[in-house]
């Protein structure tokens, strides 16, 4: 630096004495802290907005686009416009029948990596011997395959319920370190997704992934491991009630945890057969005494059948049904369960579950077909999970995905999507802990845990990238929203009318109506400062000259701006 | 920049220190030494304000070719402005009578008019023509980035990764209105921050969000909106800048009457508040005047188009007045543009259809206050398809602005504005004296000072060299409210010393502002 510059600097410095610090402070304040986990704006207490007083009585009100959209938003990962229209054209009963019909089990995940030489690319690895060197690529394959099931789902509750059970009977793929166990666990959840909860609880108890995850495989008569017994009671079945005495949680006691652990001794996982297996010598054959919470029930030695007796005993308690129904309610409806909801919805739902021998389908049918579910108060109040958000963008806006003609590309793109949801703080196969994603249990924030100063920009970055002309390229495949094709698929009279077009896209993308101000704002995004008829002129000009790139670019820019703005609205995060 | 210019700009900057307190080192005036030291973007405090007139503005009724009136009346007698009503800039060229504010700016050497701006092979689609104007592409080439966005991307490579940061805490560009303007679209991301509407700007300042229904969905919506606002990374920077300055011009119409004026008010406040943002984009819609751009009955000087031009004129005049009062007028240059002009011949509905070249305005104390080019020559009997031929490619104006206002080298300009017709000829829209530093745009009142400072016991003295003529001295509080009119009368030339009585005022910071013909200064005064 020469002398002149040196002299200039202090002169400037006098004016700006405080600026570097101030600028830094401004920056820090603006960034909101990069490590924010819970938004400073999230609930400090449960909201007190009025809840619906409508009951489980079958819904008989109007049935049209908005009702069908509500049901499918909650049941799928982003219903397409065509799926909504089809459902709106059927009866509610027909739609529920379809949603509750179990689809055919998917073929297992396949090898897409040159690293895994146990099988050729395109063939499944799920029965091959364990190899730590390829565990990573197999786990990625499993996760990608799972994501693919969601992305390619039919109009069925199977995938949303499979994810529900994953969030309920949690294992973490990273912990169990055997993707073959992981696949078997996924297969089991999917098999019972719409089936019998008690049977699922029994089979999950001795599935090798769970035996390893919660240390059941280390539990012997001489040294019982309480981990699974505790979570079975606290998280998987009856749930923890109020503490009413030393070690007494109303619904069960600490001694019940110990007794349950003894029942479950003797099980281990077999890495060759990929099954749980029982070793009589490791089992505690003594009598297990349960507390008054279970009617002072005694379970005597039942060897490898004993765990079923335990599960039956727990499921004989009405509180188990109540606990499960509350969880379903928070998954499908809203997180606030007040006294009225408890009485009008949870209790009758629990009784229905019991009277149906713990088959979940009749309960889902009752809940999702109820007056309560279709009450306007319950529309749009669920915040999309990262999986729901990300898959919805792709499905509703018709983003093309690679086909099975190139499995490595297909899996690579699914894997990429897993990375995207992971950045938004949710990844298939690895809930943060055994309690599942806190958005479904952590009071008072619940769903609001999904949105914070870190995750919201990541959601916006995704939608901004997908609507850009370049899209996102992964393994040579480009993911992008083709705004022009999307609009061209609409009825011509809708596509060519600015306000009808905005209305049609709005009812697809948003679960609640926009205000007149918002609609007029969107109109201005599509047509800055121009009268409505100019959209018709420009659109029809393009439609008449579909190969004219300039005319296509003209409407594409505007539609991209419109969709980018719509996906940037707060409403877009609601379901 | 030579040393004298540096000292001049520094002196200009010192007059209102409180308003500039947020400026980091070197943010005003280009300093090659500081540029090397920081290794960063070109240091400049210059601001460019782009005003987009959406819909295609009828240039022939805005800038009136007085020597073409017989042809003009042949083509559009139904809608033309009667010649006597023209606001004459020169003997040959006039303005629409609704634009008295622009006429005054021209008379005060703050307005340049560029005639017949367009591009070869004009496109008549609003969308496509807008894309051409905002991207700076040739007519038959699609470029998805914007011309100003490419400029900013070159200055701030890698944006938005790592932004904002301590060196660049402020938005690089701000567009006010429903969309982030494509002008500031970079090659991969938009370089601009959008302020959706003037009301959302004030919401942002106050940290409030739109009201939502009192339902569970409304509860979650409010929560998400709060996070949306929080994660607008520039919220704090905007709030801080807005907190440092208040609009001072009484010429702005009340909020809600002139949306361009409402937008420019925000720009003036942010510029004066020290935001380092280089490019602002504002817009006014409604120029697509196919029918009744003038009333069905009555004078052609009223009606839809007159109202629009009146808004443009009123807003820009108030903005310039505000910038002057805020002592930042020399840092700001503005330009209007529209995606196309309209046909020479009026249609049968007292309107005009999509056309081609049209005049644009450049405004500010630093512009060359002249008419560039000549009046368009109109055919004696224009047909329905006749258009105003171009004299200036719009990219020549962009290139000249970038070159003179942001010191962009020619080689960079050629890369920023690729064209088979390039490189584009230079158009001196910025005053040569401003560029080479020989004539500062802004003149201070000689020897103006208030002493002692801080002021004790409410008594002070103000001194200056009067040039002879009317002098006004005003005292503003920190919020920009006038608290005293110290002087407002004619004074003879010569040294002047006057008592300044602040005894009735609360202790704190005040700005003492002085202006006489063509000059102004101000000083921060601390009252103890």
Automatic annotation (TrEMBL), chain A:
What is any Pfam family matched here?
A: DUF1800
Q: Which domain of life is it from?
A: Bacteria
What InterPro entries does this protein's entry cite? DUF1800
The protein depicted here goes by the name DUF1800 domain-containing protein
Which species is this UniProt entry from?
A: Hymenobacter metallilatus
TrEMBL record, chain B:
Q: Which domain of life is it from?
A: Bacteria
Q: What stretch or stretches form a coiled coil here? A: none
* TM region positions: none
Q: Which InterPro entries match?
A: DUF1501, TAT_signal
Pfam families to which the protein is assigned, alphabetical:
DUF1501
Q: What is the protein name stated in its UniProt record?
A: DUF1501 domain-containing protein
């Amino acid at each position: 630096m020469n002398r002149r510059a040196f002299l200039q600097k202090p002169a400037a410095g006098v004016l700006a004495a405080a600026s570097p610090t101030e600028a830094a402070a401004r920056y820090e304040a603006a960034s909101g802290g990069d490590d924010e986990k819970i938004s400073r704006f999230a609930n400090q207490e449960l909201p007190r907005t009025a809840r619906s007083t409508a009951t489980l009585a079958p819904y008989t009100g109007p049935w049209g686009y908005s009702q069908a959209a509500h049901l499918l938003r909650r049941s799928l990962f982003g219903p397409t416009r065509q799926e909504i229209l089809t459902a709106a054209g059927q009866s509610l009963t027909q739609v529920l029948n379809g949603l509750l019909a179990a689809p055919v089990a998917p073929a297992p995940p396949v090898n897409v990596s040159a690293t895994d030489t146990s099988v050729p690319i395109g063939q499944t690895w799920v029965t091959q011997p364990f190899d730590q060197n390829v565990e990573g690529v197999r786990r990625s394959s499993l996760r990608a395959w799972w994501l693919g099931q969601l992305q390619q789902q039919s109009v069925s509750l199977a995938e949303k319920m499979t994810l529900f059970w994953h969030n309920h009977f949690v294992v973490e793929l990273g912990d169990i370190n055997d993707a073959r166990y992981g696949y078997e666990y996924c297969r089991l959840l999917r098999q019972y997704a719409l089936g019998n909860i008690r049977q699922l609880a029994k089979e999950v108890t001795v599935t090798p992934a769970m035996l390893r995850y919660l240390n059941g495989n280390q539990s012997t008569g001489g040294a019982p491991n309480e981990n699974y017994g505790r979570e079975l009671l606290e998280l998987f079945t009856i749930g923890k009630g109020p503490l009413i005495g030393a070690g007494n949680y109303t619904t069960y006691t600490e001694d019940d945890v110990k007794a349950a652990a003894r029942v479950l001794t003797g099980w281990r996982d077999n890495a060759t057969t990929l099954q749980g297996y029982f070793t009589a010598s490791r089992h505690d054959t003594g009598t297990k005494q349960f507390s008054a919470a279970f009617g002072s029930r005694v379970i005597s030695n039942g060897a490898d059948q004993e765990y079923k007796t335990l599960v039956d005993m727990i499921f004989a308690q009405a509180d188990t049904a109540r606990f499960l129904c509350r969880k379903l309610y928070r998954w499908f409806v809203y997180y606030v369960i007040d006294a009225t909801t408890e009485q009008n919805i949870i209790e009758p739902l629990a009784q229905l579950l019991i009277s149906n021998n713990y088959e979940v389908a009749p309960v889902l049918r009752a809940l999702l077909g109820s007056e309560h579910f279709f009450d306007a108060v319950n529309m749009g109040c669920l915040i999309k999970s990262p999986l729901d958000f990300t898959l919805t963008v792709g499905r509703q806006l018709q983003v093309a995905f690679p086909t099975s003609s190139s499995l490595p590309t297909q899996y690579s793109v699914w894997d990429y999507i897993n990375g995207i949801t992971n950045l938004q703080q949710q990844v298939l196969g690895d809930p943060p802990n055994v309690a599942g994603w806190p958005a479904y249990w952590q009071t008072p924030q619940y769903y609001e845990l999904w949105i914070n100063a870190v995750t919201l920009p990541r959601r916006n970055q995704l939608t901004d990238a997908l609507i850009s002309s370049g899209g996102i390229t992964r393994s040579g495949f480009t993911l992008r929203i083709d705004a022009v094709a999307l609009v061209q698929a609409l009825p011509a009279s809708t596509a060519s009318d600015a306000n009808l077009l905005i209305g049609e896209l709005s009812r697809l993308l948003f679960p609640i109506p926009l205000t007149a101000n918002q609609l007029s704002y969107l109109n201005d995004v599509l047509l800055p400062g121009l009268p409505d008829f100019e959209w018709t002129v420009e659109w029809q000009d393009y439609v008449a000259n579909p190969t004219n790139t300039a005319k296509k670019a003209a409407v594409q820019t505007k539609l991209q701006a419109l969709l980018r703005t719509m996906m940037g609205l707060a409403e877009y995060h609601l379901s | 920049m030579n040393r004298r210019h540096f000292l001049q700009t520094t002196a200009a900057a010192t007059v209102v220190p409180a308003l500039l307190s947020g400026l980091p080192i070197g943010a005003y005036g280009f300093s090659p030494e500081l540029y090397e030291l920081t290794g960063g973007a070109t240091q400049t405090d210059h601001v460019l304000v782009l005003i987009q007139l959406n819909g295609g503005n009828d240039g022939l009724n805005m800038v009136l070719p007085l020597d073409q009136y017989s042809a003009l009346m042949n083509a559009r007698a139904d809608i033309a402005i009667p010649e006597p009503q023209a606001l004459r800039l020169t003997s040959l060229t006039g303005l629409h009578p609704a634009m008295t504010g622009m006429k005054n700016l021209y008379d005060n050497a703050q307005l340049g008019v560029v005639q017949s701006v367009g591009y070869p092979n004009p496109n008549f689609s609003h969308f496509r023509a807008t894309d051409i104007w905002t991207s700076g592409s040739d007519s038959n080439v699609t470029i998805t980035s914007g011309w100003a966005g490419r400029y900013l991307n070159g200055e701030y490579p890698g944006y938005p990764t790592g932004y904002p940061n301590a060196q660049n805490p402020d938005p690089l560009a701000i567009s006010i209105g429903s969309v982030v303007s494509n002008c500031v679209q970079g090659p991969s991301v938009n370089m601009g921050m959008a302020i959706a509407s003037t009301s959302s700007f004030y919401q942002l300042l106050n940290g409030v969000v739109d009201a939502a229904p009192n339902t569970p969905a409304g509860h979650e919506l409010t929560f998400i909106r709060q996070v949306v606002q929080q994660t607008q990374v520039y919220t704090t920077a905007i709030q801080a800048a807005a907190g440092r300055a208040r609009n001072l011009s009484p010429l702005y119409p009340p909020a809600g009457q002139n949306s361009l004026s409402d937008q420019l008010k925000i720009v003036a406040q942010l510029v004066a508040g020290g935001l380092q943002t280089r490019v602002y984009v504002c817009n006014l819609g409604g120029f697509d005047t196919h029918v009744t751009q003038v009333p069905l009955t009555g004078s052609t000087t009223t009606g839809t188009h007159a109202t629009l031009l009146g808004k443009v004129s009123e807003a820009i005049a108030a903005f310039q007045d505000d910038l002057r009062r805020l002592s930042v007028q020399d840092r700001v240059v503005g330009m209007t543009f529209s995606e196309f002009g309209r046909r020479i011949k009026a249609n049968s509905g007292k309107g005009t259809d999509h056309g081609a070249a049209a005049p644009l305005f450049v405004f500010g104390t630093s512009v060359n206050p002249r008419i560039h080019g000549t009046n368009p020559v109109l055919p004696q009997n224009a047909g329905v398809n006749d258009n105003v031929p171009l004299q200036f490619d719009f990219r020549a104006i962009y290139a000249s602005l970038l070159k003179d206002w942001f010191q962009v080298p020619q080689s960079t300009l050629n890369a920023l504005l690729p064209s088979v017709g390039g490189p584009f000829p230079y158009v001196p829209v910025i005053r040569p004296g401003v560029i080479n530093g020989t004539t500062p745009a802004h003149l201070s009142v000689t020897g103006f000072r208030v002493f002692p400072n801080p002021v004790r016991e409410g008594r002070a003295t103000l001194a200056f060299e009067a040039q002879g003529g009317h002098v006004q001295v005003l005292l503003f509080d920190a919020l920009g409210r006038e608290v005293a009119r110290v002087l407002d009368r004619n004074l003879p030339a010569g040294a002047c010393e006057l008592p300044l009585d602040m005894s009735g005022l609360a202790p704190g910071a005040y700005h003492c502002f002085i202006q006489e013909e063509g000059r102004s200064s101000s000083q921060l005064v601390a009252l103890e």
